[in-house]
Design a protein that fits this description.
six-stranded antiparallel sheet; Rossmann fold; Tumour Suppressor Smad4; alpha+beta
Length: 298
C-alpha cells in the first residue's frame, strides 16, 4: 500500500502539528498522499472515511486521539480498507492496545514498516467503538473536560475537570447481565473494553484486542473515597486487587440502571443507558508493528 488518504482532527491535542509532519515523512518514504483533509469534528472524520472507502482507497490514516479513531472505525468495519492510527490526542489508549508507541514517530514507523492485522471492535446500542466505553462518572468527566484544557495540560486535564463531577455525582443502582449471569450493584461507573488499555493501564491483565470478548470492570464502593481509590489503583495497575472490584470477560452484556446514566465511547459522549454491548470479532483491518502480539496477522 503506497497510497493513502490522510485525515487530521484539528481539535485533537497534537493534531495540527502532526499533520504536516506525518505528510512530509510519508511522502519522503514513497507513500503518495492521494487525499488530505484537516477537519474539526468527529462527524466530518466519519464522512471523510466513508468517502475514502466508497472510492476504493485501501489505506486511511487518521491523526487524532481515541475519539477520532472511534469516529473512523464504524465506516471501516468489515471492509477491505485498512486504518493507520496516528496518535495525537490527550489519551491514546487505542494505539497502545495495538502495540503502537503513542508517538508520531512510532506511528509513522508502523505505517512504513508494520503489518496489516485484524482486531476486534466493541458495539454499544448499534454503534462501533474502537477501544472502550464507560458508563457513569467517567463519562461525565470526559464530557466536562474542556478541549482547550486538554491541549494545554494533556492527560492532567481529566484530573482537573473531575473535581466538580466527583462532588456532584451520586452512585446509581444497576443490573449487569451476561451469558447466564446477573449482577446487581450500586456503583459510580463501569468500563467495558474491546481493547486492552484504559488510559495507560490494561483494564484486565489478560485483556486483548483479539480475544473475541469484552472486558468488564467496576467497583461497588458508593463513597467518593472509593472512587478515588479506584482511580489510584488504575494508575498503579492494581485495580483487580481491590476488594470491591467486579470484573469478567464475555462476548455480550447488557446494563440497565435505575436512573439513566451517560455513556461515553473512547472518551466522547455517546448516549444514555440502558446499554446493550457486544463484540465484533476481527472487524477492523489496521496497521500494527511487526513485533506486536496485540493483533492477529492477515
Amino acid at each position: 500500500m503506497r497510497e493513502a488518504v490522510l485525515i487530521g482532527h484539528l481539535t485533537s491535542r497534537n493534531g495540527p502539528a502532526a499533520f504536516a509532519e506525518v505528510s512530509k515523512a510519508l511522502v519522503a518514504h514513497g507513500v503518495s498522499i492521494v487525499e488530505a483533509h484537516q477537519v474539526e469534528t468527529r462527524k466530518e472524520i466519519r464522512r471523510r472515511v466513508k468517502r475514502a472507502v466508497k472510492s476504493g482507497h485501501t489505506l486511511v490514516l487518521v491523526i487524532g486521539g481515541d475519539g477520532s479513531q472511534a469516529a473512523a472505525v464504524g465506516p471501516l468495519a468489515h471492509t477491505k480498507a485498512v486504518l493507520g492510527v496516528i496518535p495525537a490526542g490527550t489519551g491514546n489508549s487505542f494505539a497502545q492496545s495495538l502495540g503502537i508507541t503513542p508517538t508520531i514517530e512510532g506511528a509513522i514507523q508502523t505505517i512504513l514498516n508494520g503489518r496489516v492485522a485484524h482486531v476486534d471492535l466493541g458495539v454499544v446500542n448499534g454503534e462501533y467503538f474502537a477501544n472502550f466505553a464507560t458508563i457513569g462518572l467517567s463519562s461525565e468527566i470526559a464530557e466536562s473536560t474542556p478541549k482547550l484544557l486538554k491541549k494545554i495540560v494533556g492527560g492532567a486535564a481529566y484530573g482537573l475537570a473531575a473535581v466538580l463531577p466527583m462532588l456532584k455525582h451520586r452512585p446509581f443502582l444497576a443490573k449487569v447481565s451476561w451469558e447466564k449471569n446477573a449482577l446487581k450493584l450500586e456503583t459510580h461507573q463501569m468500563i467495558v473494553a474491546s481493547g486492552r488499555y484504559f488510559g495507560n493501564t490494561p483494564i484486565l491483565p489478560d485483556a486483548t484486542a483479539t480475544s473475541g470478548r469484552l472486558a468488564f470492570f467496576t467497583t461497588v464502593g458508593p463513597g467518593r473515597m472509593d472512587v478515588m481509590r479506584m482511580y489510584l489503583a488504575f494508575l498503579s495497575g492494581t485495580q483487580t486487587d481491590l476488594p470491591d472490584a467486579h470484573y469478567f470477560q464475555t462476548a455480550k452484556l447488557t446494563v440497565k440502571t435505575k436512573k439513566r446514566q451517560p455513556i461515553a465511547i473512547d472518551g466522547s459522549a455517546f448516549g444514555y443507558t440502558p446499554a446493550k454491548f457486544s463484540v465484533a470479532p476481527n472487524a477492523l483491518r489496521v496497521m500494527v508493528p511487526q513485533a506486536t502480539n496485540e493483533a492477529t496477522a492477515t
